[in-house]
Amino acid sequence: MGFYGFPGMFYRMDPTYSLVVIGAVICMIASANVSRSFSKYSRYGCKRGTTGAQAAEKILHDAGIYDVQIRHISGDLTDNYNPGNKTLNLSDSVYGSSSIAAVGVAAHECGHAIQHNVGYIPIKIRSAIVPVVNLGSKLSWPIIILGVILGSFNMLNIGILLFALTLVFQIVTLPVEFNASSRALKILDKSGMLYKDEVRGARKVLTAAAMTYITATVSTLLQLLRLILLFGRRDDD
User: Fold this and answer.
1) Which residue ranges make up each domain of the chain?
2) pTM, 2 dp
3) Can 198 be counted among the known catalytic residues?
4) pLDDT per residue over 197-218, tens digit each?
5) Which residues are in coiled coils (predicted)?
């Protein structure tokens, strides 16, 4: 809510709500940028005519990975690598497309598969904390709201700590995503799968995608700061 109450019926604007607005705006800008970049380079076909699925298969096999299944899933920009069942899932706009954007995104997801295969530490940490973070994200706001209703500072503290787990997860995710993109671009360049000018296009798409992770982290940090500020104010009252 953008307003907080004082004893009686008086309400005034909560200045900390601006932190939420700032976070939402930068996330919207980053999301629009990645959509624009992907759309632009989806219109440019790579000269070798390699599809996203073909690129993924070649990259995985060249890395000695044969136990990862490449799947076609619905949607746009829903691509992901699932280490649990070892599936590399490519969306409608990537799987059968031979665009620069499609090959870049497919290579990025292969980067995650390679990370998993070589035991990249940050992705191990991220996978390990997923269950705790999921639980924390579900319980944080109900506990915070209950703490406000009951006037319990202990419950507020617990709720804020649980919310902070999301920020920890996002911070750990940053090196995972940047490393996957770095691996992808090096592979695309060295293998000759994309020409130099095409690699530059793929880099722009992956850089735009990486910015969404940065802005999401900043947005969560701002929300956490707001909770801390609000809690401090309530504590003083």
Assistant:
1) 3-44+111-236
2) 0.86
3) no
4) 999 999 999 999 999 999 999 9
5) none
